[in-house]
Write a structure and sequence with these properties.
The protein is mainly alpha-helical and 287 residues long. It is built from twelve helices and no strands.
C-alpha cells in the first residue's frame, strides 16, 4: 500500500491547473479519436504530472505550503520510487501513441526532474528555471499532446496553426508562473533557491505577470482572428475578465498590506484562472 504522505505529494488534483494545456491541444485536433484522447489524458494527468510532482517534492522536502498542498507531510523514500514507476508507466503506455510522443514525454520527465534535483536544480536559476517551466509546461506539452492525439510526425507540429497557439500558451505560463512562487519567498530563501518571483520581489512579480498577460492576450486575439473565428477573440476577453478582476483586487490589497500575499490567495488565483481557461478551451474544442 502507498502511504498517505506519498499520495498527498503526488498532488493529483493539482493536474486541474494544467488541464488548459491539454484542452488547448485538443481544440487543435479536427478528427477526434476517443481512444487516443483518453490515453493521452490518463498518461498526462495520472502518470506524468504526478510523477513530476512527487519527484520534485522528494528533493525539495518543503515544510511550508506548496502548490496544491497547504500542509505538506514529510516525504518518504517511497515517494521517490513511486514517482519513477509512474514515469516508466507513462513511457510504456506512450508506446501505444507513437515514438514521437514517447520521446517528448521522456524529455519532459528529464526537464521536470532537473528542476529540483540537487545535481542541476533549475530552481536555483531564476531565469533558466522560469524559461524551462514556461516552455516545457506550455508549448512543448501542447505539441506533445497534439502528437499523441493525432499520431502525426514533426512536420505537422511545424505548421502555424499548431505552433502559434502552442507558443502563446508558453507566454501565458511565463507570466503566470512567477505568481505561483510569490508566497514562497521566505522558504526559497532559506533553501538558497533564487526563483524568478523572489528575484522580482512581490510588486515586481505582479507587474511582470501583468505585462506577459497583456502580450498573451493580444497574441490570442491575433490568433483567433487569423486562424479561427473572430468571435473567440471576444469570448476569450470575457472568459479572462474574472481572472483580471481578481488579480487587480489582490494587487491593490498587497499595495496596502504586504501580508496579503498568502498561499490561499495564490491558490484562488490559480483555481480561477484554470477554471476560466478550461471552460473557454472546452467551448473552443466543442465548437
Amino acid at each position: 500500500m502507498i502511504s498517505r504522505s506519498t499520495w498527498l505529494h503526488l498532488r493529483l488534483p493539482f493536474s486541474f491547473f494544467l488541464l488548459p494545456v491539454f484542452l488547448l491541444a485538443l481544440s487543435l485536433v479536427f478528427r477526434y479519436d476517443p481512444y487516443r484522447i483518453g490515453l493521452v489524458f490518463f498518461i498526462l494527468h495520472f502518470l506524468l504530472y504526478p510523477a513530476s510532482n512527487g519527484y520534485n517534492s522528494y528533493f525539495d522536502k518543503d515544510e511550508d505550503s506548496i502548490g496544491g498542498l497547504e500542509k505538506p507531510p514529510k516525504v518518504k523514500k517511497e515517494l521517490y520510487w513511486v514517482s519513477i514507476l509512474l514515469d516508466v508507466a507513462a513511457l510504456l503506455l506512450g508506446l501505444l501513441l507513437g515514438k514521437l510522443f514517447v520521446l517528448m514525454a521522456f524529455i519532459y520527465g528529464l526537464v521536470s526532474k532537473a528542476y529540483s534535483h540537487p545535481a542541476v536544480r533549475l530552481k536555483k536559476m531564476p531565469v533558466t528555471g522560469w524559461l524551462a517551466a514556461g516552455i516545457f509546461q506550455g508549448a512543448f506539452t501542447v505539441l506533445m499532446v497534439y502528437a499523441g492525439l493525432t499520431g502525426e510526425g514533426v512536420s505537422a507540429l511545424s505548421t502555424p496553426e499548431i505552433y502559434v497557439p502552442a507558443l502563446l500558451s508558453s507566454i501565458l505560463l511565463l507570466g503566470s508562473y512567477p505568481m505561483t512562487q510569490i508566497y514562497q519567498h521566505d522558504e526559497d530563501g532559506r533553501r538558497g533557491d533564487e526563483t524568478i518571483s523572489r528575484k522580482l520581489g512581490v510588486p515586481g512579480t505582479f507587474h511582470f505577470t501583468a505585462v506577459f498577460f497583456a502580450f498573451a492576450d493580444a497574441g490570442f486575439v491575433w490568433y483567433f482572428i487569423n486562424y479561427r473565428d473572430p468571435m473567440f477573440a471576444w469570448l476569450f476577453q470575457f472568459a479572462m475578465l474574472p481572472v483580471l478582476m481578481y488579480f487587480l483586487g489582490w494587487y491593490m490589497a498587497v499595495r496596502n498590506d504586504p501580508g496579503a500575499v498568502t498561499y490561499r490567495r495564490t491558490m484562488r488565483l490559480n483555481l480561477l484562472s484554470a477554471f476560466c481557461l478550461n471552460v473557454f478551451f472546452l467551448v473552443l474544442t466543442i465548437y
